Structure formats: structure tokens, C-alpha cells
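Render Peptidase S8 and S53 subtilisin kexin sedolisin in 3D.
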Amino acid sequence: MKKQFLRMVGISLFCLSLLNIEGIDLVYAANYEERKVYITSQKVDYIKDKSKIEDFYSKKENVIENEIIVKYKEDEKKPSVFSYFWGKSNNKEKIQKIKVKSKSELDQRLNELQNDPNIEYIQPNYKYKKSELTKSNQYNSVNAMMLSTGVSEKQWYMDSLGIPGVWTQSTGAGVKVAVLDTGIDTTHEDLQGKVIGGKDFTNSGSYMDDEGHGTAMAGIIAADRANGIGVSGIAYDAKILSVKVLDSRGEGDTLTTSEGIKWAADNGAKILNLSLGGDSSDPILEDAVNYAVSKGCVIIAASGNDGVFGVGYPAAYNNVIAVGATDEANQWSNFSNYGDELDVVAPGVNIYTTAPKSLVYQTYNVYQGTSPATAVVSGQVSLILSKQPQLTVSDVLKKIKDCSFRLAKTYPDIFYGQGVLDVSKAITGVDGTLNYAVLASKNDNTIGSAREITSSTSFSDSIASETDANWYKLYVPSNTVAKIKFSSGNSGLSAEIYRNDHKSLENIMFPFNGLYVNEEYYVSNYFSPTYYYVKIMDNLSPTNSWNTVIEYKSITDPVIPKIQSLKYSIDTLKQDAVVTENTLNIGGWALCEDLIGNVKVKIDNEIYQIENGVIRQDVFEAFPEYYDIRAGFNGTIDLSQLAYGKHTLTMVFTDMIGAVTSTNPITFTIADTLKYSIDNVKPGMQVTSNSLPVGGWALSKVGIAKVEAVVDNDTPVELKYGTSRIDVYNAFKDYNNMTSGFGGNLDIRKYGYGTHSLRLKLTYLGGRTAFSTPVNFTIVSTLITSMDTVREGSIVMGTTLGIGGWALSKAGISKVEAIIDNNTSSIMTYGATRMDVYNAFKGYNNSKAGFNGTLDVGKLSYGEHYLKLRITEGNTKVTVLKPVKFIVQSPIYSIDTPINASTIAGNTLGVGGWVLSKAGIQKVEVLVDGVRYKELQYGINRPDVYNVFKEYNNQNSGFNGTIDISKLPYGIHHIQLKITDKVGRVNNSKAVSVNIADTKKYAIDSPQSGKIVVGNTLNVAGWVLSKTGVVKVEALVDGVAYNVQYGINRLDVYNAFKDFNNKSSGFIGTVDVSKLSLGNHSLVMRFTDARGQILLTEVRTFSIQKP
């Protein structure tokens, strides 16, 4: 029995913690590599559409079953029978509550309402409940107030907050506070005359309290001080409106709460105290809140009593003051919800206040929770507004920010908000004092003061009260299990474990269920290294102490226990299932002796977190011995990044002590359901235009987000997807897609002529992609062209080259360029009228196909060159035509003199002839043996040449000049012309050969051969002729030279050789032979001409004899 009782306590605590998490939504972080689960709660304005439909099914425990709330548009004309209206007659909003009898009827009505154009939005009728944990009465008698302070000694929070000191400044007079609650006992001795009116919205017939919660809140705010008994309200001169929105069970709904807010605002309330809350954002409730704020109301609401991250509603709304609870030591109370929306905290533990005697058999009682904390803040704000009635809710929030006792290192803090409101400072500007009713031995109630654990360790710890909490910051590496062993003497000890953001729950609770028994728990981390936060508390005992041992193990360590007595069923996925969607819905149930605390899904090697704790009445009834009505699990896994094909799925169950068991794998197949057709691009199709129309249809059961066309693996081009294709819909009705068509035009101008491939790239909803089978198509050129003016082998004689012709393409012609010898291109003018071409090729429909232009060829060298056309079509494709050879004609000329192969003599050579060029002649130079000699005179009149070559139109083409050839040796030499035209081109003529002959003639008159010389001298005489001229005559006697005089008049020789034209060709001289020996000697004459050429005569002998 003991074990069963403890199990039920654990289950109750577990369910309380799991089910009443206010303002928390489980969401998957879609792009997070480890797919962790995050819990988010944000103050955001609800977008009013029809999206709250899902809450009818996903938040069943938070809504009233089979009830629908509908808000109609303001311009809706149909008269409707409404069950509820808000506010007074000036309120034009039309709200209707519809009740149905079954889920099937609910489904039907929701479907009808969603399609009604007169409806603004649809939502469930959400539940709201009081935010108070009633404490057993500790005070049996009604004590009189202390005369010195006017408060009961049991009202510890009054002195803690310094309230009595403020009463000299403000008592709450003139402030009307609406207590939206279970009603108020107006007959209570401390509340008589305080309640000035009210309204019941629960159909109980009276705004009197039939539960007790509302009476308690009213006493905290405004209980009578003057009567000297019981308790005193914080703002004891304030007046109260009893707005009954919660029934005798402390429960209300969307309509009761919303109507109450509107009524309070319309009936003069300045402050609305809502010590209540719900778990879901509620559009109609939010409208009511906004309405009240617009009327100048300040709304103060409880954050919730589940001790988890996430402020409840309406406290979570931006324009509502959200209140959390602290204890006597001004530390966070472990039941108080926390989060980013929290604005302020106030005492919420052991709050002594009024109670209806008819219900609790005494007129005063002790309460705790965020409900009394909210009433404390309402009393504080009443004191402020009594002095400063003009303040709005934003002004009050600023007062809280500027005038609060700080309880944490940074602000705002998720546990303390801005801190505890300093009413004295808010009213007078002078800092008050925050007193402690109990002095805490340590401050470790919040995450900011958590004990950090990074390695195996052991320690002892304790808590001081049932609202105290200790936090551990536990580091767990990846694929590691932290084994936690607790030893406690009290059975009420419990723990909650959070991931590193302390906002998403891992194992939400481990109930310690053994008196003096060692308990072991296991925290498994399958993901990357992370911190867990462990909250330890005892809600059953005022104090507790324990020993903790922490060890780290591998996640595969066999010491980690397996779940005993596990029963489970995976309802939504069977072995060898085929999945065609982007998501996989996993649903089922699991039971074990120690309750299932966590459910994960492992697909291949990836771990996914899913929700557990889902109500399964059928499982509870089938296995009542497990005492677990929340055995269900469900979740949606994103498969969009997984490949098509076979995969394995394993469920990983973790029980409440951390024992882990994995199920046998289930094999399933992700199937690609793609069907498609490219209707207008067929294999082998020829394309002649600039664009390629691509159209067809594509279907996939996962949905198609985008269709793109890819040519030759180039960048994809998006097509328009979603056009109506009823024919496809009729053919494949199971895909249920009437808009599967796609289409678009591809600009294919950048692709060359020839064969190309086209593929579709299909992006599915969720991001997976697929490619279709390639289709080959051919881009065909329609270019035809002709170059009319330059033909193969054309002769170009001038400095310009005229280009003309035509070009046609069905893609159009954007540019025609002419290129000579692969040099820089020149753009031709395109668009000249060519009717001859138009008539010949009417299919091209282009009468302006001509092109023309003039190229400067003056800088081209003489000889062969190549011209090609480069044509750019309208599709940007470029075609270079076959080159055409043309010849730049060199000048024509004639060398009249000297005549080729002629023999010449003398020291000069006359050169003459003519040269013609259409470029004009700049100069003519003569080269001898390749060496420039001189520039000749050009421009001599040559009518004979003009008459022969009249097309050159040049009568002065002659040239002549004389060159000095005296330095040239005798023999063959080559004469050339170097012709430079007027554009600077140079051309060398063919060579003319000439033979420079040696023309020497001589005679040795004396001595004669054999002459006998008697004496000391030898007379030498004779003559010598040369057309080059003789510069020296020498007599060589036995090889020794002796100069001989040259230039002696010899008319006889002149007359004999008149062509030499030399009258002084004689030479004469005397040689001293006195030194020579007797006997024979030799004589040779040596002649040197003007070129330096030497001629040696034959040898003559003479004999020297004695006289």
C-alpha cells in the first residue's frame, strides 16, 4: 500500500508539473543539427486568423470539451443568436459560443465555420483557474491587530514590504479594484462596506464567494484596518468590485473571464486583479485585455504555480503586469512560474488573509501561490494610483522598473523580473527598506546561483522549507550518462531536470519514493555536450536533507539499467511501411513500473525528441495496474533531409529514474512519388529561336515548392509552378493537385549551336531535391551570308578595302565585324536595304540584310592577307566565317638603267626608271648589294608611263640619279630600288645585276726585255689607261718599289684610245740601280687605280754589266 500510495503521489506531482505548464509550447528546431526540442514562451501579439483550430485537438486538457467560440466580423449582416455578449451596448463585437455533442460534430462544425466568410476567427473555450495553493491553517484564532502598526502579527509581508510606513502618504482611497475571481464574501467582518458592487458571470446567481479564493484576495488588497481585528489590507481604503468569473471549483473559461474584464473596465475599475491563469494564448481574452487597457485600466495577473519556465495567460501579454512569488526570505518560491514575461515578484508564502467562514469554518486562513502575490502587487499599485491616478499600465511598469528592490545580479531576471516593488520609492521618491521575515542560510533558489558539476562527485545538501529549491548545473558530455544517486530521509523529495536553456523539459520529474532508501537516476545525453539544470525541492516537508553522488558513464555502459515491465505500441508506423510525405507522424503509448519520463525516436543514426505524457484513456483502461493515464506519445519527424530509400526507426524510452530501453528496429521506406512530364521539349527537337519554352506538369505527394530548368548543368532557372492542370488532376486524383502545371521561357542565346541537355530540378516542400531524366535538344543555326566585295584572291592596290555583303538569321543579326589577319575587328554597318536578298529568302522576312564598311589597309604589308567576317546573331551566338584571301598589290616599277647584266666601267653609275602606286610614292632609294646608296629624284615627267597606266593617274612617275661606284670592286654587283609609298610601306624591287669591268691598258716602252744596263740608273717609261683613273705608278726592281711619275702627255695614246678620254696617260722615271749587283735583275710595273685595284705587269729582265 505504501508503495502504491507513493506511486500515486509521484504520479500526481508528475501530472501537475507536466500538464499545467502555463505558456509553454513544444516546438522542434528545424535547422538545428541535433534536432533538440526547445520550449518557447514569448510575449507576442496573436495574429488573428483561423489558426487556433489546432488547439481543439492538441490542448484538450486546457479547453472545455466540445465548445467553440466564434468571433464574427463587424460588418457581418446576418442576425445570430449569441450565447454571450461583452460589455455594454456600445460594444459591437459579436461573440458566439457553440456547443456540440461529439468529436465528429465538432469536426463538422469547425469545417463549416472555417469556410464562413463572415467569421473573423475561431477558437476553443479555454479554461482558467485560480493561481493559489491553499495551505493548511496554522492560525486557529482571530487575533487583534497590533495597535502600533495596525496589522496582524501574522501578516509578516506587511513589515517586509514596509507598507505601514507608506500609509502616511497613501491608503488607497479613491481607487476601485476589480477582483476577478470566485466572488467575495461581502458579509465578512473585515470586508463589510468594501465591496461596492459586482457581477456574476458563472450563472451561480450571485457574486458572493462560494469557493473562498476571491475573498482571500480581496482581504489582501483592502481588508478593513479601522475595525482593529483580523487583518489589514495593503490599500485598506480602496473599494472592491466583485467580478465572479470562476466557479465553486475555482475554474472559469474564455467567456466568463473576458466578459468580466470588459465589465470591470466599463464600470470604473482602475485596477483589475486576476489571480488566475491559463495555459494558452487566447485571442478573445487578449481582445478583452486590450479593451480594458484602452479604458485606462491596470491589469495585474498571476504567473502560475507550476514552478516551470513559462508565464501563464493573461499575465504573459505585454500590457499586463505579470507577478511571481517569493518566500519569507525574499527568495524565489519553487512553485512560481518564471520566464521572460515576468515583471515583478511579491510575497506569496504563508499569506494570512480573510476567508469565508461558511466554507472553511474560520474567518481567516493562510494561502500561498502566485495568487496572493498578485493581490499584494494590486494592493501596492492601489497605493501608488491613489496618489497618482493618472498613471497608465506603461507608467506603472516603468515605476516597477525604476522602483524595485533588486534580488538578482542582472535585470530583468527570469525568476524575479525587476524585483520586489518599493512602494515607498514609487510614491515619495525615497528608497524604502526590504525586510526579511526569515533569514536564509544560502541563496541557491534560482539557476543563477546553481552549483556547477562537471565531474564525478559527492556532497550533502538541504532545503529550508517546502517552497525552497536547490539548483545544480550539471554538465553532461555527448553520448554520456550522468548517474545521480540520492539518499534522503524524507519521501517528499523530488527533482526536475531541464536542458541547458532551462526552458525545455527532458525528464520533467523524478519522484523520490522511498523512505531511507537510496535512489539512482540517470540523465542520458545523446546530443552534443550540454548542461542540464536539476531543481531539487520537497513540497511535503518543511525541511529536508540528502546526500548526492554523481558519476559519469558511457551511454552504452551496461550498468545503465533497462526499463522493467515495459509495454509499448507504435500505432502509426508498421514494419516495411512506405512513407511518401516529408514528415513522419509517430504516435503510440508506453508503460512501465516507474513511469515513462522521456521518449526519443532514432532514425538511422539521428536522434529526435518527441512529446510524451499524452492522455490515452484506452491504454489506462486496458492496463489500470500502471496508474498512468498519460501513457501516450506523439511527434512529427522531418524527413525532408533524408534520402529516398530504406531507413530504420527505433524508439528509445527513458523512465522516471533514467533507465533506458530501445525497441526492435522498424524498417520503412521513403518513396519518391514524383511524376512529371515536359510537354513541349521532346528528344532530338531542333530549336532555332532565342528562347526555349519549357512547360509541363509535376506531382509529388510531399508537395512541390519549386521547379527549375537546367541546361547543360548550368545555373538552374526557376519556372512558374502552380498553374491549373485539370487533365493531370483527373489522371492522378490520388495526388489531389489541380495546379501541377509549370512553364517558362529559357533564354538560350548563350548556348552554342549543337546538342544540349535539359533537366528539371524539382525542390520538394521540406527542401529535398530531385532531377528529371535529361532530354536532348539541338540548337540549329539559321545563319546564311554572303560577302560580295572581296573574293578569294582579290587584288587590293590602294589603302582602303571596301567590305559589302548581306547576312540573315531567324534569330536576327546584332553585329557584323570584319577581321584581317586575326587582328582587331572593325564593325560594319548592318541594315542596308537588300531587296534582292529579301526576294530570294522571304522566309527570313528581312529587307535590310545588307552590311558594308571600309577598312584601312594602308598599314598592311604588301602580299597575301586574310579577311574573315564575325557575325553576332540576335541570340548572342557568334559565327566566324571562313577566311577569304586577298593580296595587297606592291608598287609597279621599271629600272630602265642600268640594264640587267650589263658591263660597266667608270666611277659613276646612272640609275633611272619609273614607279607607280595607288598609295602614292614618298621616295625612291637605290641599294647596291643591299646597302643604301642614296635617294633618287622622284617625280620626273613620264608621259609614256602615264599613257600605259592611266588608272594610276600619275604623269610624273619617273626617277633618276647618279651614284658613285668608284669604291666598288670590279665584278658583279646588284642594284635595287627601295620604294616607300605615302603610307609608309616599303617595297624592295627585284635586283638588276651589273658587271664593273677592269679597263686598264698599258705599255712599257722602256726598258725592253734583256736590256743591258751599264751605269747607275735605269730609265723606265710607258703609258697606262683606266676608266676608273690611275692614282699611282711604281716600278718594282727585284721586288723593291720605286715611284714613277704619272700624267705625262701622250696624245698618241689618247688618239688611239679616245673612249678613255685621257691625254696624260704617260709615265716616266729613273731608278737608281747603283746598289744592285752585276748580273740579271727583274722589273715589274705596278699600277694602282682609283678603286685601289692593283695591276702588276709582266716581268721584264735586264742585266747590269761593268762599263
